Amino acid sequence: MRVLGIETSCDETAVAVVEGAAGAEPVGRILSNTVYSQLTEHRRFGGVVPEIAARAHLERIDGLVAQALDEAGVGLADLDAIAATGGPGLIGGVMVGVMTGKALAFAHDKPFIAVNHLEGHALSVRLTEPVEFPYLLLLVSGGHCQLLTVRGPGDFTRLGTTIDDAAGECFDKTAKLLGLGFPGGPAVERAAVGGDPRRFALPRPMWRKPGCDFSFSGLKTAVRQTVEKLPADDPRAVADLCASFQRTVGDVFADRCANALARAPSSTLVVAGGVAANVYLRGRLEEVAAAHGAKLVAPPVRLCTDNGAMIAWAGVERLRLGQVDALDFRPRPRWPLDPAAANRM
After folding, report:
1. Is the pTM of the predicted complex or chain greater than 0.90?
2. Angle at 40 (CA atoms; ends 118, 71), nearest 5 degrees
């Protein structure tokens, strides 16, 4: 099975071609994975501007489709389906990807698959690792922070979610306060190298409380207050604060994942999403997984941030089950993986 995947939910325009076996075996092959990052367009604003993002997607998408097909050495006739992110995300960008995917599917008589962006992250680990269902997933990115049990495409149970801010947003805010640039996650990780993770005592919201939900708003406030008091003549202050911040986030992740593993035991803990690229946090999660007799598995760093390969792979997984969509599919700014979760709050 060969599927073209289109990702346009935020500030990366991405197109990929992925190949997978017709059976249910995990692990596929990436034939191409092209990404245009909009960092240059958004950096001067300190965050993503939706209107600018949508325009950039529109300007780049056709060229990236052609490039992805060329690098994969295939034509549209060689594909088995077209997959595109159908949400959640910035609606202008999602519309660009969905309409492009529909047009290609209609013009070349191919099945169209609308992929939940979060499901793309959730299943991406199976593109490169033989991970069997079910598994426990920590999904962490700029806009999302959730713990879920993953039983298959479209089959998720949410155990916990953030009640306010996402961890990635907290990284971005910390980087902005310290003048480290955008995006914040990689900037904070670089700045933390060699820093003292115990110099600054920061609050750990929800830590050691029952359940699997997250909170980061109090941590953001504490970082701001700490930044305002940093001594200007201390060259180690920024590194120490970044290291302390990472350690605090790691404490929260470890505590919440421990509760989730106790509530829904699993032999595999998967971490996915942009924040999963952080090496320090991966190490903390390896420790908590091992303490509960589980193995931590994460996608390669290049597949943690938004990319077309994860959308194409989710398309492969859905195509195997015959889960395709009609061309009247409507893009969704919100699209929970577990629709019933709101009723369990």
Report:
1. yes
2. 65
